[in-house]
Amino acid sequence: MGAQIPNNIFLIGLMGAGKTTVGKLIAKSLGKTFYDTDHVIEQRTGVKIPTIFELEGEEGFRKRETSTLEEFAQQDNVVLATGGGAIIAPENRAILKQYGYVIYLRANVNELYLRTRNDKNRPLLQNVDVKAKLEQLFHARNPLYTETANLIVDTGHQPVAVIIQKIENALHALESSCKP
Ligand SMILES: Nc1ncnc2c1ncn2[C@@H]1O[C@H](COP(=O)(O)OP(=O)(O)O)[C@@H](O)[C@H]1O
Ligand SMILES: O=C(O)C1=C[C@@H](OP(=O)(O)O)[C@@H](O)[C@H](O)C1
Ligand SMILES: [Mg+2]
After folding, report:
1. Given a cut of 70, is residue 179 above it in pLDDT?
2. Any domain includes 120
3. Domain extent at residue 38
4. Residue pLDDT, tens place only, 152-177
5. By the number of CB atoms within 10 A of the CB, which of 12, 54, 113, 133 ranks highest?
6. Could you tell me the CATH number of the domain that includes residue 47?
7. What is the mean pLDDT of the chain?
8. What is said about its interaction partners and assembly (predicted)?
9. What's the pLDDT at 1?
10. What is the dihedral of CA 109, 27, 118, 50, to 10 degrees?
11. Could you tell me the CA-to-CA distances from 154 to 43, 110, 122, 143, 159 in Å, in that order?
């Protein structure tokens, strides 16, 4: 029996990498259900992420993130866009590796900066030097994204459609790589 396209696909990467945007489109293309852990948290709490950070601190947000990840990673036939910090907690990395095929959307800091500099919904990028913060997060987290990923896709300066095609090609190559 040849390898199928993975049942669950998880997207990881820094803020602005395209996890939410690409995830939605990949799910549509593959006939899978799309979820975004940030969106689930906002829907269930009734408030935006910055408000959770204000009221519960980053720690409170991370607890919600882990429980949401645990719940949705074990669903069936999903594409799950995680938040950029999901890979910080070792238990989150273990969940991602255990329940799905993990794709790291990698982009350079300048690209990420261009995509996030005016965004008010990312508390970690408020009232800071955004480029310097993204640089710091990249250096801290790139090793964690890399160790967790089954596939790394560079998304810098490429239209989303090209990235979708790259991912589909990689997934279909998986499928045919094990055919007898
Ligand atoms: N490959 C890309 N090229 C240009 N802009 C992109 C690309 N991927 C995402 N974007 C844009 O960058 C912003 C952040 O994308 P988003 O999907 O929210 O990223 P993430 O969920 O990884 O933080 C959005 O405005 C989105 O339209
Ligand atoms: O990098 C991070 O720690 C975060 C990334 C955000 O998600 P996106 O990566 O979708 O922006 C969101 O989970 C929160 O603001 C924290
Ligand atoms: Mg997102």
Report:
1. no
2. yes
3. 9-177
4. 999 988 899 999 999 999 999 987 77
5. 12
6. 3.40.50.300
7. 95
8. Monomer.
9. 47
10. -100
11. 30, 13, 22, 15, 11
Of 1, 5, 13, the closest CA to residue 100 belongs to 5
In a domain, 126, yes or no: yes
ipTM of the complex: 0.99
CA distance 150 to 61: 26
Look at ligand 1, atom 8, and give the residue with the nearest C-alpha: 18
Q: How far apart are CA 166 and CA 154, in angstroms?
A: 9
Predicted TM-score of the model (pTM)? 0.96
Ligand nearest to the CA of 123: 2
Question: Any residues with CB less than 8 A from the CB of 51 and at least 6 apart, and which?
Answer: 45
pLDDT of residue 176: 75
pLDDT for the residue numbered 7: 94
Q: Which ligand neighbours the alpha carbon of 38 most closely?
A: 2
Tokens coding 36: 């975004």
Q: What is d(CA 46, CA 101) in angstroms, rounded to the nearest whole number?
A: 30
Q: Which atom from ligand 1 is nearest to the alpha carbon of 11?
A: 22
Cα-to-centroid distance, 16 and ligand 2 (Å): 9
Name 80's bridge partners.
10, 35
